Amino acid sequence: MSFPEPARRAPGGMDAYLAPGPSTFTDLLASHAPHLLPGRVPEGAAPGGGAALDVPHGTTIVALVFDGGVVIAGDRRATSGNVIAQRDIEKVFITDAYSAVGIAGSAGIALEMVRLFSVELEHYEKIEGTTLSLDGKATKLAGMVRANLGAALQGFVVVPLFVGYDTEAPDPSTAGRIVTYDATGGRYDEHLGYHSVGSGSVFAKSALKKRHRTDADLATTVRNAVEALYDAADDDTATGGPDLTRRLYPIVVSITGAEGAVRRPEAEIADVVAQVVAGRTENPGG
């Protein structure tokens, strides 16, 4: 297969992609097209002043470990200041067969980070012939968050919530894992069995602290995730509650050893939401 002479010789062209080099797609991108990395200031742009921009922010994400796996869910609202920037944004993404990421913070950079993370995992699998371990995936994401520190100092903070199923765990019932991060790339394994990030996280975690059990089944865990997001939306204006008029419901992903990462069907979540709303009609406090 031949390519035009300029394409083969251009920096970052096909020769750069096929030449032997680092096994990570991020390193390849950093060498030949650094402007495409999340959080990089475009060439010629003035640094600083990012905090003054009213860019969309996404919240809230919850994650829950259950007997045999893990669930992650997120509301659908993105805000820009006191304005609703988007009502149906998706903040929870399946990144490979046994992992998923939920994003909170500057939506644009967060979305690019998740896309690059997914490509990174696929690239590693193709180059090395095996999937990255769950710890390796969590560490890789930590490095990407740390690489965004310059943008975070300008106000473009991204805080992901990583979940996965450890296929190498000796006990399948405890294979679900939750990993949290701070803006500097610090990685923390969550051992309580639940966690939340975003502006409504304090309300969501308070709900989960009373409701959630790590020995619960999948259906109960999905219901608890929806309940927690409902409580967050009840007290946090940046978190969107279920919109029955527009049929906008939380995005929920479950990860188990048998099914892998699966986005729960909208009809299933709509039914759960209907039950939650009916219950809150009788008892608004839950």
What is the distance, rounded to the nearest whole angstrom, between the alpha carbons of the first and last residues? 64 Å
Beta percentage is 15-25%
What is the overall pLDDT average? 87
Going by helix content, strand content and strand pairing, the class is alpha+beta
Low-pLDDT stretches: 1-11, 42-52
| Rg calculated over all Cα atoms | 20 Å
Name of the CATH superfamily:
Aminohydrolase, N-terminal nucleophile (Ntn) domain
CATH topology: Glutamine Phosphoribosylpyrophosphate, subunit 1, domain 1
Seen as an oligomer or otherwise, the chain set is single chain
Tell me, briefly, the overall form: globular
Order of helices and strands: HHHEEEEEEEHHHEEEEHHEEH
Topology:
Layout: H1 5-9, H2 14-18, H3 25-32, E1 57-58, E2 61-66, E3 69-74, E4 78-80, E5 83-86, E6 92-96, E7 99-106, H4 107-128, H5 134-147, H6 149-153, E8 158-165, E9 176-181, E10 187-190, E11 194-197, H7 201-211, H8 218-235, E12 251-256, E13 260-263, H9 266-282
Antiparallel strand pairs: 1-4, 1-7, 2-3, 2-11, 3-12, 4-5, 6-7, 7-8, 8-9, 9-10, 12-13
Helix pairs in contact: 7-8, 8-9
Task: Please describe what this structure looks like.
- With 286 residues, the protein is α+β, with helices and mostly antiparallel strands.
- It has one domain (51-282): 4-Layer Sandwich (Glutamine Phosphoribosylpyrophosphate, subunit 1, domain 1), CATH 3.60.20.
- Helices cover 37% and strands 23% of the residues.
- It contains nine helices and 13 strands.
- It has helices spanning 5-9, 14-18, 25-32, 107-128, 134-147, 149-153, 201-211, 218-235, 266-282, and strands at 57-58, 61-66, 69-74, 78-80, 83-86, 92-96, 99-106, 158-165, 176-181, 187-190, 194-197, 251-256, 260-263.
- The strands form two sheets. Strands 1, 4, 5, 6, 7, 8, 9 and 10 form an eight-stranded antiparallel β-sheet that branches.
- α8 (218-235) crosses α9.
- The radius of gyration is 20 Å and the shape is globular.
